[in-house]
């Protein structure tokens, strides 16, 4: 926008200067030619009284004296075919002057001025002078240079004024764009200063009002989620007490572990709901978390006669997620396998370092695989589920600086690859 304003002002000022300076340049040339012609005419007319009353010898001395100084050359053509002064050819203008007419005519290299004098002793005489092109254009070059510098100065001044005007318009727009990017990145406290033209200030006020409204709505939504999650603690507490009342044994341990997992997830939901988007996503050791979750799901895998292959990298392998968030991701991926594949279907879990930091988690099974639609889209499910599991994993991966990839339509089953970014230092 700033460049366009400068181009517009430069074009407008240039057109105005051309319309103003070009006529002035031609006028300066015309005035210089008229001035030189008038000076030459005055010089020639100064000899008219001498030609009218003087003899040939006296006239010769007067013409010689007039040509001795600087100025335009003078030549006198007498009616008796005599020529006095600076030698010059008898041109058409001179012959016309011998008939009694005074005139100014263009000639090669300049302008010829002829003054006819009647009543002399030898009949009609002609005083002829010549103005060269150099005399006709004397001072014109300097005038054109001055006009050019004046035009250039006016153009520069116009561009400087336009640049300051453009800055006063563009700077608030740039600040508003930077505030919009900060809002998009999650910094809901970003506000733009009300500067610039009235229209820009109006837009700034609207953006600031929108940011404040988003901040209020998001806070209300987070508190509602946190309150709802907190309300789940009451039935979970009752469920945990019932589980602890069961006879000691493997079944009691499994129920208690499931209840603890649910309590941990509810706690994580409350923390996530009240966590600011500008807070760091956290940090944990991925190998230990994935290994613990595999141990937890291995009991159910044995009951369903599922072969579980694990290939985990050597610790430590830090990632940019909290332990609760990574636990939720691993549970969501393994739960999908158990929920959407027949009993007896094997699965494999691989955890390896990610180039540049972080980790890559791959969960694959030997089931029917995914259908054609995007299961990572929120709310999309191919079975009787909420369709939120893979979306939770995707958002957690993106929050850490990674991404989620689904291998769909493969004959060997489903394969989910999740890349987690490194911790933020």
List the helices and strands and how they pair.
Elements: H1 2-45, H2 48-53, H3 56-68, E1 74-77, E2 83-85, H4 92-97, E3 103-107, E4 110-120, E5 123-132, H5 133-136, H6 140-184, H7 198-231, H8 233-244, H9 250-274, E6 284-285, H10 286-303, E7 308-312, E8 318-319, H11 323-340, E9 347-353, E10 359-365, H12 389-399, E11 403-407, E12 415-420
Helix pairs in contact: 1-6, 6-7, 7-9, 8-9, 10-11, 11-12
Give a verbal description of the structure:
The chain is an alpha+beta fold and 425 residues long. The chain folds into 3 domains: 2-141, Beta-Lactamase (2-Layer Sandwich); 232-279; 280-420, Heat Shock Protein 90. It has helices at residues 2-45, 48-53, 56-68, 92-97, 133-136, 140-184, 198-231, 233-244, 250-274, 286-303, 323-340, 389-399, and strands at 74-77, 83-85, 103-107, 110-120, 123-132, 284-285, 308-312, 318-319, 347-353, 359-365, 403-407, 415-420. The strands form 3 sheets. A 5-stranded antiparallel sheet has the order 2-1-5-4-3. Strands 7-9-10-12-11 form a 5-stranded mixed sheet, covered by helices on one side. The chain has a two-stranded antiparallel sheet with strand order 6-8. A hairpin with a 2-residue loop joins strand 4 and strand 5 (123-132). It is rod-shaped, with a radius of gyration of 50 Å.
């Amino acid at each position: 926008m700033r460049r366009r304003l400068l181009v517009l002002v430069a074009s407008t000022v240039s057109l105005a200067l051309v319309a103003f300076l070009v006529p002035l340049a031609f006028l300066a040339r015309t005035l210089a030619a008229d001035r030189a012609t008038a000076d030459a005419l005055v010089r020639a007319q100064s000899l008219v009284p001498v030609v009218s009353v003087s003899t040939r010898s006296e006239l010769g001395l007067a013409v010689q004296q007039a040509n001795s100084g600087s100025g335009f050359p003078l030549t006198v053509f007498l009616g008796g075919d005599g020529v006095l002064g600076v030698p010059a050819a008898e041109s058409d203008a001179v012959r016309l002057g011998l008939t009694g007419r005074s005139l100014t005519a263009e000639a090669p290299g300049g302008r010829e001025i002829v003054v006819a004098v009647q009543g002399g002793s030898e009949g009609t005489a002609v005083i002829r002078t010549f103005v060269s092109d150099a005399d006709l254009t004397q001072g014109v070059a300097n005038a054109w240079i001055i006009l050019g510098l004046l035009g250039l100065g006016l153009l520069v001044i116009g561009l400087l004024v336009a640049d300051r005007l453009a800055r006063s318009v563009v700077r608030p727009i740039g600040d508003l764009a930077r505030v919009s990017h900060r809002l998009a990145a999650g910094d809901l406290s970003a506000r733009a200063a009300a500067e610039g033209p009235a229209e820009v200030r109006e837009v700034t006020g609207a953006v600031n009002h929108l940011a404040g409204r988003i901040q209020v709505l998001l806070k209300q939504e987070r508190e509602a989620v946190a309150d709802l999650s907190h309300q789940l603690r009451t039935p979970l507490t009752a469920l945990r007490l019932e589980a602890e009342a069961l006879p000691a044994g493997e079944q009691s341990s499994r129920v208690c572990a499931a209840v603890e997992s649910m309590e941990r997830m509810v706690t994580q939901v409350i923390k996530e709901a009240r966590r600011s988007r500008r807070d760091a996503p956290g940090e944990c050791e991925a190998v230990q978390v994935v290994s613990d979750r595999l141990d937890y799901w291995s009991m159910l895998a044995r009951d369903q006669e599922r072969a579980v292959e694990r290939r985990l990298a050597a610790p430590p392998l830090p990632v940019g997620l909290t332990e609760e968030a990574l636990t939720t991701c691993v549970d969501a991926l393994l739960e999908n396998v158990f929920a959407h594949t027949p009993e007896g279907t094997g699965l494999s879990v691989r955890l390896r370092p990610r180039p540049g930091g972080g980790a890559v988690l791959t969960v694959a099974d030997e089931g029917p695989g995914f259908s054609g639609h995007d299961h990572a889209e929120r709310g999309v499910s191919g079975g009787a589920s909420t369709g939120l599991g893979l979306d939770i994993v995707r958002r957690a991966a993106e929050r850490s600086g990674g991404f989620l990839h689904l291998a769909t339509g493969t004959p060997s089953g489903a394969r989910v690859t999740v890349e987690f970014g490194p911790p933020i230092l």
